[in-house]
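assembly run, all chains below
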Amino acid sequence: MASEPAIAVDHLVKRFGTVTAVDDISFSVAPGTIFGLLGRNGAGKTTTLETCIGLTKPTSGRVRVDGLDPAKRADFEKLRRLVGVQLQATSLAEKARVREILDIFAAYYGLRSQPQELAARVGLADKLDRFVGKLSGGEQQRLALALALQHDPPILFLDEPTAGMDAFGRRILWAEADRMRAAGKTLVLTTHYIEEAERLCDEICIVQAGKIVAQGTPAALVSAHGGDASITFLARGFEPSERLAGLGRWTPAGDRWALAVHGEPGRALGAIVSLANDSGIAIDDLDLRRPGLEDAFLAITGETLDEDAAEAVA
Amino acid sequence: MRSLRLLYAQTRMDFVWYFARDGEMIFWSLAFPIFFLFVFSFALGSGSTRTTSTFLVPGLIGAQVLSSGFWGIGAMLATFREKKVLRRIYLTPLPAWIFFTALVLYRMALLAFQAVLLAVVGALVFKVRVIGNPFEILTILALGATTFVSLGAVVGALVRSTESANNVASVLTVPLAFVSDAYFPIDRFPSSVAAALRMLPSTEFVDALRGIAMYGDSLAHYTTWIIVLALWAVAGTAVTARYFRWV
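ok done. output:
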């Protein structure tokens, strides 16, 4: 291995009474990686993350964050200066003003507070004098993100950072993630939003019932598990040539043609268009659908992860 | 130096966030003791209202000290834990002692308000006179507050949920105040019961406060009780340190 992993989780098991929340999970995160734990609510993502930041002690197994053991008191003391954390629900004093919260957290880290700048980064510049209790759910999440960023930590843990956030909040988080990537920082996040995982993460672990069921880059997961791309179009009098027939699986339905292609569909698309051109056939209503992480997730877990399903589980 | 500045900032914020900006809290913590002073002065007095109030003012202050500990610290810590305020703080480098001391100082500042208010209303309405040495009054108040804050913290350490912590705090505060010479003299109990009740730290504290503030006793007169109160404080702190959980 080229460099020491920023985070190493080794055969982590966590039981709460008779419930096994995390069931032998291992992964490691290289420095500078944006790493996602993707799964439904209750899959064990949060427990895994909380073990990494020292909020939960492992039943068995080993966790190291920058070589430190979060379960050890002395290491934890160092760890909390090293990591920034946004918990799933951060509750702060309702009668505190945003500015006061930013100021006091800066003081916790011995930093000079720059509330204006930090608030602007998370889109709360005009809310500095607002009471925390009067902020919307999404605004509270963004304030929590600001607190995680406060001391410019090299490692950031975000637990469901965009749950309850509107599109604006998501864009802000994604911009911060891009900033971290550019700065070579490490980011671990849990999410049950496919789009977020696909858009942000360099590497994804799909977690189901306390176990990692698949791991890889989004592209690798999709190519391994996402299934075929499909090209559908409407063309009167079209007949696939011999060469085209070998490109994939054809399913004609009247004048509507569908081709399932394994892998990159560009070549097949080009061939179809040029055959149609050569034979003077008009192609209409052409649709190309590549498999996404969603398809891979369904294939791997046998479950969907749309918001309603996730909400229903929670 | 930086620690002290941080302690001051945290105490000030606690005071502002949880008291000064909370109308309900202001009402309950200031109006309620005054309401008790009026009702009890007229209802429970057997002699003059002045005698009764002279008994009641330190008693009500003592009851507030109990409630500061069990409610203000105990139930508050449990609420903080359940609402996940504690875990967020725990993840920052804020030293635990600053977090706890600030919470205690905020409650002591609030207690000072309550004590002054009760003494002033008592003086204006019922002609109650505080004759004790102010320094000695402050000392016994601070010691009592420390003792009950530390016993209150035990509740916050041992009881997990907000709801149970609230129940434990009610069960400890109100009945304890009734049997601790705070609202009426425990001499009215059979003498063996009264003797047993005098062993309670709350009774010892209320009696010492009353003796020093209202009857001009010296602090030294209560040395034994002061030692006992200090021991309770140490025991409470030790149990809290052992069992307190941030998450």
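The mean pLDDT of chain A is 91.

Chain A has two domains: 7-224, 228-290.

not gonna interpret more than that til we talk
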